[in-house]
Amino acid sequence: MLARTDRHPCDIHAIARTCGVTLHDSADNRSTGRKPGHCYCKPAVRDIGRRYGESHLALVLKLINSTGNGLELHAATLQAVSYLVRIEVMPIGSGLFEALDRIDLGHVRRMARAMPGSTANNMVAMLYPMLAGTSLFEKVAA
Fold first, then answer.
1. How many CB atoms sit inside 10 A of residue 18's CB?
2. What is the reported pTM?
3. CA 35, 37, 26: angle at the middle one, nearest 5?
4. Nearest to 119, CA basis, from 87, 81, 86
């Protein structure tokens, strides 16, 4: 992922509340009974907020939670979406929210976990062409 910039002060609980996300301790994580908008990876949330600021963290949480992917508030998903926002794979706006609304981040994460390497990096590699458009790999007519 991108190199660390400065440390930003970040109240992750306040930001999460404004985004409709409830933060829990990782010890409370259960594979069953998980509800949309509940996040069990405070360290990843804190790291994103401190590295890139509260507004960036809020955007990442809103992109995941408000696009029908509220069950996917996992560390790898947060890291992948954060990276894609930072490299501006799509302009930030309603188009980005609509694009993520059409993508099942849970399915992408499960496929990325099955591949060797970092789940977050694999998710970025899979999500980038989905968000940038298929023309990324098409040959240009001469």
1. 12
2. 0.87
3. 75
4. 81
| Residue from 34, 32, 12 nearest 23 by CA | 12
How many angstroms separate the Cα of 98 from the Cα of each of 60, 63, 69, 92?
14, 9, 12, 11
Q: Kind and range of the H or E element at 38?
A: strand 38-39
Structural contact between residues 64 and 70, judged by C-beta atoms closer than 8 angstroms: yes
Comparing C-alpha atoms, which of 59, 70, 69 is closest to residue 21?
Answer: 70
The residue behind tokens 């910039």 is: 5
Q: Which stretch of DSSP H or E encloses residue 107?
A: helix 105-113
Residue 33 carries which side chain, given as an amino acid letter? Answer: G
- Place 142 in a pLDDT band, splitting at 50, 70 and 90: low
